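Hi,

I'm pasting everything inline rather than attaching a file, because the server keeps stripping attachments. The sequence lines come first, and each chain or strand is labelled.
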Amino acid sequence: MGLIVAENISKDYQVVATKVSKDYRTGEVVVRALRDVSFTIEPASFVSFVGPSGSGKTTLLNLVGCLDKPTEGKLTVVGTDVLKLDRHESAQFRGDNLGFIFQDFNLIPVLTVFENIEYPLIIVKNTAAGERRKRVMAVLEAVGMVDQKDKYPDQISGGQKQRVAVARALVSDPNLVLADEPTANLDSKTAYTIIELMKKMRNERKTTFIFSTHDQKIVGEAEIIYSLADGELVDKQVKGGKQNG
Amino acid sequence: MGNLFKIAVRNLFRYKRRTLLTVSLIAIGVIFVLGYISISGSFKNMMIGQITDSSLGHLQVHRKGFLASIETLPLNMNLKPQAVKKLEGILSQQAEVEAYSPRIKFGGMFSNFVETSSIRLNGIYPEKEFKAVPLLTSRILNGSKTLNRGEILIPELLSRGMKVKEGDQIVIVATNQDGSVNGKQFKVAGILESATGPGGRDGYVHIEDAREVLRMGEMEISEVAIRIKDFGKVDAFNRKLDGLLSREVNKEGKPTFEVHGWQQLSPFYNITRMIDMMTIFIQLMLISVVLISIMNVMIMAVYERIREIGTIAAIGTLPGKILSMFVMEGFCLGGLGVVIGDIMGTIIIYILNFTGLVTFDFGRQKGIVLLPTIAPMDVLIISAIVIFVSVLASLQPAFKASRMEPIKALRHV
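And the predicted assembly:
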C-alpha cells in the first residue's frame, strides 16, 4: 500500500497515480516491481523519485511516460487515462505531451546538435521550417549550446550531450519532462549543472520535471522527493516540510 | 519526406564500407543485366533484321494451305490472278505497308552443260523485291546489283560447287503444273551470299522468266512478301491484314488467303524466345542479389540500432514513421546502386557500340559486328525493378523496427 492516497482527482494535476502496481513475468516467475503506488504531481513541479537500484524508479517513470502500462491501478497523465491508449495513441500522446531525458543521452549519432533538437519538431510535430528554427535556436540558447549546434554527438562532451537532450525534451514545449537518472553518467559538477539547467527551464517554461536518481548529492535539488523501496512509496519530502503519511 | 531522406542517407554513410559493398553489388548487377540485355537484344534485332531484310520480308501472304506444303513448292497452290489483284488492292491501301513483292517459288534443275544440280528459285519483280527485302542487293557478291530478263542470281554454294561465275550461261529446267518439263537458258548476273533463314540459299530470276519456264498461261503467284514501315507493329498489322483477308473466301466458302508473320516463317523465332527467357532469368538473378543484400543490410541496421529505435519511439515517433525511415534507407541503397549501375552500364554499352568490339559468327556469316544499344524503357524497367525490390526487401526489417516496444528497445544492450 502506498503512503499517499490520491483523492479528489482534479485535472489540475499533471500526474495522478492510484494504487498502481506493475508485475513482470520471467518464465513462470512473476516479479512485482511496483506495489499499490499512489501519488499526485502538480504542474510546474520539480519532482524526484529516489531509491536504491531495483526499487522501481525506472518502472514508475516508464509508466508515467506511457512506455509501459500498469498491471493494476489507475494512472492519469496530463488528464488522460493512459491505460486506455493503444500503441499508436500512446506514441502520439508522448509526442504531444511528454519530453524524455535519458541516462545515456540517446542522441541520434547521424544528426548534428541542431538536428537532434529539431528532430521531434520534424518527425513528431510536423512543425513548419521557420517556426522550427526559431524554437530550436531558443532552446539552444537556453541550454547554452548555440556555438556547438553544428557538431555531431561524438564531437561534444557528456555534459554537453545531456544539455542537448534537455533541449530536445523541451523543444516541443511538453507538459511533462521525464528524466531517468539524467546525471548517472556525469561527474558531480556537471550533474549539478544539468539539474540547475532543468530547474531553470522549469522556472522559465513552467514545465513539470520528474526525474529519478539514486545520487544522494543531487536528490536535495528536487523540491518534492518521493522515496521508493522494494516497489513501494515509503516517503514524500517537500522542501521545507515532510509528509510520510 | 526530405527529412526522412536526409536521415536515411546519413544512416547509410554511418556504415560506409557496408553501404559501399552493397551499392557496388547492386550496381554491378545492374551493369551486367543492362549489358546482357543490350548485347542479346542487339544480337536478336540484328538477326531478325538479317532474316527479314535478306529474303523473308516482315510478313507473307499465301494461298491457304501453301505453307503447309512449302517443302514441295506446289504449283497447284498458287494464288490466281484475280486473288492477287484483290490482295494488291488491299495492300496498296494500307498506310503501314512500305513495300510488297509477289513471288513465284519453284524448284528446278540447274545445269552448267557439264553437271546438273537441284535449285530452289524465286521469280520476282526485281524493283519490288529489292524494296521489300532491301538487303538482297547487298548479298550480291559479284556482278550487277540488278536483275534483268534472261538473267539469274545464283547462291554462292551452288556457284562454288558447279564452278559457275557471273556472265556464264546456264540452263534451268523445271516441271510445269501439268507435269511436262521445260527449260530456259539464263546468264548468271550475280552470285548471292548465303543468308540465315528460309530462302537464304534460293536463286532469283525475273518473274516473267519464271512464268515462261513454268509455261503459265496467266500470272500466278506463290506468295507475296510484305515489308511494313514500323517493324514494331508487325503483330498488329498481321492481325489487321488477317482480318481484312479473312473476308475473301473461295467457292467452298473457305478463306482464300493466309497471313504469316516472320515468327511463323523462321525457326530463328524460337531462338529469340529463348533469348527473352534467358533475359528473364538474368533479371531474376538480379532481383535475388538485390533482395538478399538489402535485406541483410537492413536486418543488420535494425539490430544495431535497437536503442536508437527505442529512443525515437519514446519521444513520440509513430510506428508508421519508423517503418518509413527504414524503408527509405532500403530505397536509397537500391536507388544509389541503380544510378551508379545505370550510368556505368550506359557508358560501357556506348563504348562497346562506339568501338565495335563485340563480334560473332552466325552460320556462314563471319565476324558480324554487334552494336549494342539499350532502350531508355529497358533502363527504366530495370531501375524500377531494383528499386521496387529494394523497398520490398527493407519492409520486413522496417516492420520489425516499427513494432518494437520502446521500453524493450531502450533496455537493449
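The CA atoms of residues 139 and 193 of chain B lie 5 Å apart.

If the labels don't parse on your end, tell me and I'll reformat.
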